[in-house]
Specification:
Strand content: under 5%
Distance between the termini: 50 Å
Number of strands: 0
Length: 239
């Protein structure tokens, strides 16, 4: 009987079910934490056709995304390491512990992304072979936006695992883009595909894929977190 109890819950199917359940819980928590972003289409409608007011509403809706990403990453990292105490509890703990710094670190990335979007909206024309300069400008802005988004997500991942100063988070988020190319390209690819799906279908799809999306990013980013731990924490403490 004792042996059966020890083996209960240790099978791969049981662990897989636990991961699926954890992802679903995190998805609900991400949606609740970003209810302004979920309701962004309604807020834009309420803006009454004012592009400026609609833009400000959407910008404000993106501000709470940072702390929720940190909380989800904290919960998923513990889940992947087998150290979780329940995704719900870990999410709430990560949200409370890192809210202030996550907000301070996330807002500048949102501001840069907002500037990129504004330039894209006001740039005349579309992708046109007859106007290579405008097409190149659009490609450059889209590439810059993807780069900033990847760096922002990287900063949130680092904050979920380590205690760095905010300015060091900025430096490390950019440093990781070059030092961990495979991880960065993987995260950029995940973000690009997600943006494409949301544009091609509906923004409401984000309600369903928020949890799985963040889990994939955390899973892909494990080598990067291990690299940062070895290079910037283990060696420093040993010295």
């Amino acid at each position: 009987m004792a042996q059966k109890k020890a083996e209960y819950g240790s099978g791969p199917l049981f662990r897989a079910a636990g991961v699926v359940y954890g992802v679903m819980v995190a998805d609900v928590l991400l949606v609740l934490a970003n209810i302004l972003l979920v309701l962004a289409p309604v807020l834009v409608t309420l803006a009454g056709g004012s592009a400026l007011l609609a833009g400000v509403m959407v910008l404000v809706a993106f501000v709470p995304v940072g702390p929720s990403l940190v909380a989800a990453a904290y919960a998923f990292n513990r889940l992947l390491a087998g150290e979780d105490t329940g995704v719900f509890r870990d999410f709430v703990r990560g949200y409370r512990a890192n809210f202030g710094q996550a907000l301070a670190a996330w807002v500048p990335y949102v501001a840069v992304l907002a500037a990129v979007v504004v330039n894209l909206l006001f740039l005349p024309g579309t992708f046109d072979a007859g106007n290579p300069a405008q097409s190149a400008a659009r490609v450059g802005l889209l590439g810059l936006g993807l780069l900033v988004a990847t760096a922002g997500v990287t900063a949130m991942l680092l904050l979920s695992r380590f205690t760095f100063r905010t300015r060091d988070l900025y430096r490390l988020s950019l440093y990781c883009l070059g030092a961990q190319k495979r991880v960065s390209l993987g995260n950029a690819g995940i973000l690009f595909i997600t943006a494409f799906l949301l544009t091609a279908t509906t923004a409401g799809l984000l309600i369903v894929i928020a949890g799985p999306l963040m889990y994939l990013i955390c899973l892909n980013s494990r080598p990067m977190l291990k690299f940062i731990e070895q290079k910037f924490t283990v060696q420093d403490s040993a010295s």
